[in-house]
Amino acid sequence: MGSKKNRGMMVSMADPERMDVGGRTWVVFEPFNGTRRVVQLAGSLEEKDVQFHVFAQSNTPMYLQRYDFVGEFHQGLARACLDGRWFHIRTNGEPAYSQRYDFVGCFFDEDFATARDKTGEFHIRKDGAPAYSERYTKVQSYNGGTAKVSVSSEIS
Fold first, then answer.
1. What is the mean pLDDT of residues 131-154?
2. Closest-CA residue to 102 (of 117, 87, 81)
3. 106 in helix, strand or coil?
4. 93 in the Ramachandran plot: left (φ > 0), alpha (ψ -120 to 50) or beta?
5. Which superkingdom, per the lineage (predicted)?
C-alpha cells in the first residue's frame, strides 16, 4: 500500500517545486547546503513514496539508494528511515553506522543526536553509539553543552 502518511506530511511543506519525471511526480524542497531533498511519489497504491537527495545545481541524484524518509544534512549526516527503522546516512547515501533505532533526530551544532528505542530516549554519537547508558521519557537536542531531559511528564 502507498505511503499516505509520508505523502500527506511532505506535500504540506512550504511551497515545494514539483517536477514530472517519467510520469511520476517528484516534490523538490528548497536547497540546503547545496542539496535538495526529493520525494518521488508512488505511481500506484502498490508502491510507496521514496526520498533521496539531489545536487541543487543539476538536480542529479547524490546516491542510488532510496529511503522512506530523508532529512536535511547537518554536520555531513542526514537522518533516514527505511522500513520503519531510523539511522543516519552520509552524503554518499550509505548508512553512517549499523545500529537502527525507533527514531533519530538531527546532528545540529553539537556532536549528539536524539534517539529512541524500546527502552526510552537518549543521545547518540555520530558513530551511532549511545552517548550514555541512561534512558529518559524525552530528550531534547544539546545546546551550549547541555540538553533537557524528561524523567516523567515534566522537563527537568
1. 89
2. 117
3. coil
4. left
5. Bacteria
Cell digits of residue 115: 534517539
The C-alpha cell that represents 106 in the structure block: 538531527
Smallest Cα–Cα separation from 82: which of 66, 96, 97? 66
Cell of 97: 553506522
Residue 18 pLDDT exceeds 90: no
Q: What are phi and psi of 132, to 5 degrees?
A: -160, 170
For residues 101 and 86, the answer to whether their CB atoms sit within 8 Å is: yes
Q: Output the pTM of the full model.
A: 0.75
SS3 129: coil
pLDDT tens per residue across span 81-103: 999 999 999 999 999 999 999 99
41 within 8 A of 7, measured Cβ to Cβ:
yes
In this prediction, residue 57 has a pLDDT band, given cuts at 50, 70 and 90, of confident
Write down how long the chain is: 156
